[in-house]
């Protein structure tokens, strides 16, 4: 992944750069003490990830990211925790508060890499030519979900189940790798038809059409064992007629 670092404090900038070099999986293609100076490289090079401070002269990090037409993945690095909500509202991959411990930095980069890999596969996974013929009847049933900086169309018949993680949802589909979205369960379940989708656990929504087996405390979809939460069990079993 190609990355740039923006921070008006040279010491902080050098620390993040050394972290990137120690990891060995990030290529630092530019470092800047002024966000406006980074515009040229973002427009000319396919930058995958931006590490940006927030409080900087001329333009702060939040306004800088908002101003970009094509937004790379970005991680805010700042000494001020009060901007966290604004950062995540912009779909920041992570929000690191200085001083940044190296293990915490690694966790943020791993999250960015996961988003990066899934983003590369999304268009391929959702290409109509890759859809199984037996799912043609559901092609007119779809939802849009926000993933990264795009609203992606997903045919409902392709969704096997949805897994809730700490900061995002992972939508598992039949045609490839999962799709990540920062939507919450409440927001997503309102988009899904109740005839096919049901929440069976605080961390899982399943597509009833893809259930292969129902056991005492779990369902099996494509060899994956998904737990049934006690508070959801009665309604779920009633829905499927057990």
Please tell me about this protein's structure.
The chain has 242 residues and is of the alpha/beta class. The chain is 30% helix and 29% strand. The protein has a five-stranded parallel beta sheet with strand order 2-1-3-4-5. A hairpin with a 3-residue loop joins strand 13 (213-214) and strand 14 (218-221). The radius of gyration is 21 Å and the shape is elongated. The N and C termini lie far apart (49 Å).
Ordered list of secondary-structure elements with their pairings:
Layout: E1 2-6, H1 10-23, E2 27-32, H2 39-44, E3 49-52, H3 61-67, E4 73-78, H4 84-89, E5 94-97, H5 102-125, E6 142-147, E7 150-155, E8 159-164, E9 169-173, E10 179-181, H6 185-189, E11 197-201, E12 204-207, E13 213-214, E14 218-221, E15 224-227, H7 230-239
Parallel strand pairs: 1-2, 1-3, 3-4, 4-5
Antiparallel strand pairs: 6-7, 8-9, 8-12, 9-10, 11-12, 13-14, 14-15
